[in-house]
Design a protein that fits this description.
alpha/beta; DNA Cyclobutane Dipyrimidine Photolyase, subunit A, domain 3; six-stranded mixed beta sheet
C-alpha cells in the first residue's frame, strides 16, 4: 500500500472490492436510464468513499453521469437541532466540493413529517440503478431494505465502514482479544492499494456530463437551502429544539471540520496518545468520533495518516498473530494504541451489529455469563434508584456522575473513561437492568453526537458485560460484571478541575 497522501489521480475509477458490494434486490440495470443514483445515507462525504466510488464505477461502465442524493429526514428518533445542524454542515461542505468537481449534488432536508415520501422513487424512475451505503445500525438497514423491495432496478449497498470489510469478519466475536487475533490473521491483505478507497474519486470524472434532475421533482421537493437552515431556518423544522447545537469546534460537522481536527490530532496529540488518552486536563483523544459516525471522514484516511506519522508499512508487522495490544503492528506505542482503538475496539462493534442486527441493542445480545449474573442479582437492594428524568437533569447524589451528564448535555460527549463510569452507575441506580439499558440508550442517543452508532452501542453494552469477562469477587447488584466506583475514578483521573467545570447546571443549556 502506498502511504502517500498525494495519491495519483487516474483517468479511470478503481473498481471497488467485491467483498464490499452486495445486491439488495434482484433488479436489473436499466441501461436506458439517465444517471447512476448514489443515495448517500451514512458515508456523508465525497472523498475516501467506496459507495461513491462504486457509483462512479457504474457511471464509467455505462457512460452515464452520477447524481449524488443526500437527504435528511425529519422523522428519525432523537432528531434535534444538535444532530440536524451537524449533518447539514456536512451537506454544505459536500455541496461546495461537488460544485468544484462539476458533479450534480441534490441535498434535500425534509421540511415536515412525510414531505419526502416518494422522492427516492421518483429519482429512481430515471436511474440506471441505485448505489447506497451499508451501515449495520439504527434505522438505516430497515430503510434501505424497504426501499430495495420497491425498486424495480438493481440496488446495491457498499460497505465503507472499516478497514476490515464486514463480510471478512466471519462471525461474532465476544472479546476484543479474540477479534484482535482475527484482525492480525486477516487484515493485512486489505492494506493493498486496491483495497483502499480512492482519495478523490471525483477528480477522475470531473469533465463528464452532469446528471439532470427534472423540474417536476425540484418543484415538488425543492433542494435544501443549506445557508438558510444554518442561519436560523432550522428553527422552523418540527424537531427537538431543546437539544442545542454544540458551540465547540468538536460540535461542528462536515468534511472541513473533520480535516481540521485530524490535522490537530496528528500534529499535537498522536505522539502522546498511549500515555495521555484518558487524562482529563490534557487528553490526547482524536475527538473525531462524531465525524466518523456521520461519515464526514473515513477511517481509511485516519489510519493512513497515523501510519504516515511513524513511517509504517505492512512489512513491519510481527509474523505471529497473538492478539496482543502492543508489538504486533511494529509501529510506535502511540500509533499502536490509537489503531487498537480505531480498528479493534471500533470495528468489533460494527461486526457485532452486522451479525446481530436483530438484537444488537437488546439485553438478549449479552454473553451467557453476563445474562446469568444479571438474572441472579436483579432483585438485589439498590442504594439509590433514579428515574430517567432525574438522570437527565443530573440530579443524583454523585458529583462526578452529574458532571459527566452535564458534559454530555452541553458538549455532546463525555470524557472516554468517565463515560464508562456513567453507564455503570446508571445500571447500579436503576430499578431494573431493562430500565438501565433504556436510560443509557435514551440519554446517549439523544445528546451524544457520536450516538446511534455500533461503536456507541459497544460502549453502552460493555457496561453490561459485552466484550468483557466475568470479574471477581462477586458483588451485590453487579454480580460478576466489572465494577467501577466514582471515588477510584476521581483519584485515577485527578478530576478536581473537571468537577469544577461541570459543577453547576446551566438551565438555559439543559432544557
Amino acid at each position: 500500500m502506498s502511504l502517500s497522501t498525494e495519491q495519483k489521480v487516474t483517468t479511470a475509477i478503481n473498481p471497488v472490492p467485491a467483498i464490499r458490494v452486495s445486491a439488495l434486490n434482484q433488479g436489473k440495470v436499466n441501461e436506458q436510464g439517465q444517471y447512476i443514483l448514489y443515495w448517500m445515507v451514512a458515508q456523508r462525504r465525497v472523498s475516501w468513499n467506496f459507495g461513491l466510488q462504486r457509483a462512479l464505477e457504474w457511471g464509467e461502465r455505462l457512460k452515464k453521469p452520477v447524481l449524488i442524493f443526500e437527504p435528511l429526514r425529519i422523522g428519525y428518533k432523537w432528531a434535534s437541532d444538535r444532530l440536524h445542524t451537524f449533518v447539514i454542515q456536512g451537506m454544505k461542505d459536500n455541496q461546495a466540493l461537488c460544485e468544484e468537481y462539476g458533479i450534480t449534488y441534490y441535498p434535500y432536508v425534509e421540511p415536515k413529517q412525510g414531505a419526502g415520501k416518494g422522492l427516492l422513487a421518483q429519482l429512481a424512475h430515471s436511474a440506471c440503478m441505485i448505489v447506497t451505503d451499508e451501515y449495520p445500525c439504527y434505522f438505516i438497514p430497515r430503510m434501505v431494505k424497504a426501499a430495495a423491495q420497491h425498486c424495480p432496478m438493481l440496488m446495491e449497498q457498499v460497505d465503507s465502514n472499516g478497514l476490515l470489510p464486514l463480510r471478512a469478519s466471519g462471525r461474532v466475536f465476544t472479546t476484543a482479544a479474540s477479534f484482535r487475533r482475527h484482525l492480525q490473521k486477516t487484515l493485512l491483505p486489505f492494506f493493498a492499494s486496491e483495497h483502499f478507497p480512492m482519495r478523490e474519486p471525483l477528480a477522475a470524472v470531473k469533465d463528464l456530463e452532469k446528471a439532470q434532475v427534472s423540474e417536476q421533482i425540484l418543484e415538488n421537493w425543492p433542494q435544501a437551502d443549506l445557508n438558510h437552515l444554518l442561519n436560523g431556518g432550522i428553527q422552523t423544522l418540527p424537531i427537538d429544539h431543546e437539544v442545542k447545537v454544540v458551540d465547540l469546534e468538536t460540535g461542528q460537522g462536515g468534511f472541513q471540520a473533520a480535516q481540521r481536527l485530524l490535522e490537530r490530532f496528528i500534529d499535537e496529540r498522536l505522539w502522546r496518545y498511549h500515555s495521555d488518552r484518558n487524562a482529563l486536563e490534557s487528553g490526547s483523544a482524536s475527538e473525531l468520533s462524531a465525524h466518523i459516525h456521520f461519515g464526514h471522514i473515513s477511517v481509511h484516511e485516519i489510519a493512513q495518516r497515523a501510519f504516515e506519522y511513524c513511517d509504517w508499512h505492512p512489512q513491519k508487522v510481527a509474523s505471529k498473530p497473538n492478539g496482543s495490544r502492543e508489538g504486533w503492528w511494529g509501529a510506535s506505542s502511540a500509533v499502536e494504541a490509537f489503531i487498537d482503538e480505531l480498528v479493534t475496539w471500533r470495528e468489533i462493534g460494527f461486526t457485532f451489529g452486522f451479525h446481530r442486527l436483530d438484537d444488537y441493542d437488546q439485553l438478549s445480545s449479552l454473553p451467557d455469563w453476563a445474562l446469568k449474573t444479571i438474572a441472579e442479582h436483579r432483585d438485589d437492594p439498590k442504594p439509590y434508584i433514579y428515574t430517567l428524568e432525574s438522570f437527565e437533569k443530573a440530579e443524583t447524589h454523585d458529583e462526578l456522575w452529574n458532571a459527566a451528564q452535564r458534559q454530555l448535555i452541553r458538549e455532546g460527549r463525555i470524557h472516554n473513561y468517565v463515560r464508562m463510569l456513567w453507564g455503570k452507575k446508571i445500571y447500579e441506580w436503576s430499578a431494573s437492568p431493562e430500565t438501565a439499558l433504556e436510560i443509557m440508550i435514551e440519554l446517549n442517543n439523544k445528546y451524544a453526537l457520536d450516538g446511534r452508532d455500533p461503536n456507541s452501542y459497544s460502549g453502552i453494552f460493555w457496561c453490561l458485560g459485552r466484550f468483557d469477562r466475568a470479574w471477581g469477587p462477586e458483588r451485590p447488584i453487579f454480580g460478576k460484571l466489572r465494577y467501577m466506583s466514582s471515588d477510584s475514578t476521581m483519584r485515577k483521573l485527578k478530576a478536581k478541575n473537571y468537577l469544577k467545570r461541570y459543577a453547576t447546571a446551566q438551565q438555559a443549556e439543559l432544557f
